[in-house]
Fold this protein.
Amino acid sequence: MKKVLFVASVDFHFTGFHIPVLQWFKHQGWEVHVAASGSITIPYVDYKYTIPIQRSPFHHKNLAAYQELKKILEHNQYDIIHCHTPMGGVITRLAARGTRKKGTKVLYTAHGFHFCKGAPLANWLIYYPIERLLAHQTDCLITINSEDYQLARHHKFSAKTITRLDGVGVDTEIFKPVPREEKAFLRFKSGYKQDDFLMFYAAEFNKNKNQRLLLEILAKVTTKSSNAKLLLAGDGPLLQQCRHYANQLGITEHVHFLGHRKDVHEILPMCDLILASSLREGLPVNIMEGMACELPVVATKNRGHQELVQEQHTGCLIENTNIQQAALQIENLINAPEKRRQFGQQARQLILSKYSLTKIMQETSLLYRPYMGKEDHTKWMAQ
């Protein structure tokens, strides 16, 4: 039986983004292995290895992760190894140098290079030379936005193949708008009033996701729109700091910290607007899920957001340094329900046409095909 190994820094990366791919490989009759840190049980996986990959490239545990992964690769004769996340990609491609010489194909998905337009100089000094060097050890480099794809091509990264895939896809049967009556019921069940203006952002609380910006914007918005509410889903190292900052700004009644949620597909349809404040993104699933629910978007300018947010068509882009301008954009949308409706409908149509899970899985199956050997591919496009 042919075997595939997926590697990432943390196991919830797979439960959050790659379950359809794991399932698809099982349907093809492959044995599926995963290696990552964490203790989550992942469906459609035959064997899971827990290895201590750390996000920081300088963490001493990454050496142990490299050594453990190398033993795993020597013990198993994988046909394909597909690595994700920056350090998952670094450690895997270093560990796979020997097995790659024996015929194993190594794929790496860059979910947004850490070096990009506007990124700190340190990111270019650290991550750029690493990615450029490890491209030599990559059979297929997969990018998920135009900027990264053009950068890899322009800088002549030496992966055997450089391609682009439009993210991981959104299940538009799960993430979808609901009738007005159901929206009212969802709000009632969650304790919100029908005239509340609900804005939603789901992300880990860290420096890059930049929730502090949204709190500052909300403080401006609520001076004119007292019914505005900000719903922040997620956990992370800066959660308590953001709670404290909301208290300092005097907006605790307007911001609700929801914690880690598995029912985002029920929260989104009752909301009015998707917000996104991150400094850096590859191609954000959280925005796509909101767009699939017919919500307009207000997001900071970065390569990932600019792929999805078409100015004055699906939403608005804002500068992360201009609080007043961002607040004004939101206030304009609060007072323009018809514009919000149009933006939302156009947002869902964009997702359906380009980013639906069905479409992405069709493209993904074609991407894997050259690396899977001589098999019967007649059923690929049907699954």
Summary: The two ends are 20 Å apart (CA to CA). The chain has a mean pLDDT of 94.
